Predict the structure.
Amino acid sequence: MRTRTWVAAAVLLAVASNASAGTDEFAIRNEQTFEFVEKPTVAKAADSNDRFEIRFATKALCDVTIVIEDSQGRTLRHLASGVLGKNAPAPFAKDTTRQTIVWDGKDDQGVLVDEKRAVTARVSLGLKAQFERTLFWSPKKRIGPGHRPLFASAAEGVYVLEGGGVDHLRLFDHAGNYVRTVYPFPPDYTSPEAKAGGPKSFQAALAKVVGLKWIEFPQDGKLYPEWQGLQFSTLLTSGDNAGTGTARINPT
């Protein structure tokens, strides 16, 4: 269920409620009711023109997340997030479903937001975390300084192999645009055996890769490929990718 309420005051307040029923055994045991008994309101604090009070009450001790967004929907401030109850993190009040959260008018960098009438305070119930993006990564980043990559041109583009503790083989088109990573091998979980999660599921996901040596791990009885090299950091068997002494400069 998803509801939204807009309240015009010193700032715009958007209310979003969306349920998520998680069955993960490691999930926090929050109450699975995601409803407001008092929908959020916002008002200027009495002691400052830059401070605002966001008030609401939930039907249960569920998880709550509050963010401040700009007019484009980008998050300016991660204001509060956590599960209500006896262990509710600050700035939430403990052991109560009735909450008053103060926004100091600043973004995540501690800078005051000028156009406060153009921002939105969003109160969400029952959110579920999901992967959004990898930070500080680029396919054109070098793996390690001082190591010379190897290039191989082909009709589909240029393959670039780089080592130095971690092997990477990437494909770029002839205009220099990143196409895909060949190694580390991307697993394919489309087959039923790969999806099953059994002892050979990972082996099935890498079934198209030839030459891997598989070993059974005593912790869970599953098969995993054996890592090679002095630092056990490569699945390639063409040679050690890390040396000792002066050999570290030019690993094989």
In short: The CA atoms of residues 48 and 104 lie 9 Å apart. Confidence is low (pLDDT under 50) at residues 1-22.
